[in-house]
Amino acid sequence: MKALVIEKFGGTEVMEWKEISKPMPQAGEIQIQVEYAGVNPVDWKIREGLVKHMFPCHFPLILGWDAAGTVSAIGEGVEGVTVGDRMMAYCKKKVVQWGSFAEYVCMEAQHCCLIPSKLNTAQAAAIPLVALTAWQALFDFAKVKAGDQVLIHAGAGGVGVFAVQLAKWAGATVYSTASSQNHAFVENLGADEVIDYNFVDVGEKIKERAPGGLDFVFDCAGGTAHAQAYDILKPGGALVSIVEPIKKELALEKELRACCLVVRPNGEQLQKVLDLIESGKIQAAPIEEIPIDQIVKAFDQSKKGHTKGKIVLKIT
Questions:
Q1: Same CATH topology for 2-127+284-314 and 130-260?
Q2: Phi and psi at residue 210, in whole multiples of 5°?
Q3: What contacts 249, CB < 8 A, 6 or more positions away?
Q4: Nearest to 269, CA basis, from 136, 172, 166
Q5: Superfamily of structural domain 2-127+284-314
Q6: Is 278 within 8 Å of 302 (Cβ atoms)?
Q7: Which fold has domain 130-260?
Q8: SS3 for 256?
């Protein structure tokens, strides 16, 4: 099969679209013939070696964690899946090597989901990692519930799109940040108020709106957004960051629950998100399709950090 392979950490020059052995499904796994793969910031961070302390890697390494396509082979012990089924998955494993920027990828069947009829394959590829990140931050860690006041940074981004919608679905009051051209979009997702971080001090605005403090801050931006979070949460509130390490001593001083989230595969949670999409309670993120031979362009856009929704690579 063809795959986007790196043999060492580095810049775009270390990537090569080349022939490599096709992975075969082990017991409990399915093989997916990949049509589209989602692009996430973690992909270029892995390529550059920026997160090697977090994720054990083995070369040759195929990048990519989001996949959508059709089932092409089934491992021993897998039931309820048929070759030809349209399937999607967050393909993270304990060791990073066999990623989704390839013609084929294998993943544990329990963490894969059928693509709902409402979604095309490209839309499906944009969902797994970001939807699971939002779900696990909101509900596994922060325990967001009706009546909570939450701030979700970067509401127009891949994770933010789902976090805003899921928080609103749970009954929370949702504040979000976005540049002015994305305000209408984020409001349409359900945000009660969208703040333009370019022209407004977000921390001061939040203190005006929620003088008693917020219940949850979801830091998808870092920098000033992360620094201000500790001062706008109430004691007992929760902070989740996906971009910066937690300041543990400050969190303890402020009596906050805080973590830097590393999202894990979970087929049951992914199915819950897909059921909400299928029922019309939330919507899929907007996407931009880029062919795999323009991977440098895709990574350049991802690194700039201003993508509305998600970039997906067309693999086959």
A1: yes
A2: -135, 70
A3: none
A4: 136
A5: Medium-chain alcohol dehydrogenases, catalytic domain (3.90.180.10)
A6: no
A7: Quinone Oxidoreductase; Chain A, domain 1 (3.90.180)
A8: coil
DSSP codes, 60-126: EEE---EEEEEEEEE-TT--S--TT-EEEEE---SSEEE-SSBSEEEEEGGGEEEPPTTS-HHHHHT
Amino acid at 238: A
Torsions phi, psi for 52 (to 5 deg): -65, -25
Per-residue pLDDT of the chain (316 residues; tens, 9 = 90+): 999 999 999 999 999 999 999 999 999 999 999 999 999 999 999 999 999 999 999 999 999 999 999 999 999 999 999 999 999 999 999 999 999 999 999 999 999 999 999 999 999 999 999 999 999 999 999 999 999 999 999 999 999 999 999 999 999 999 999 999 999 999 999 999 999 999 999 999 999 999 999 999 999 999 999 999 999 999 999 999 999 999 999 999 999 999 999 999 999 999 999 999 999 999 999 999 999 999 999 999 999 887 899 999 999 9
Q: Flag whether the pTM goes above 0.70.
A: yes
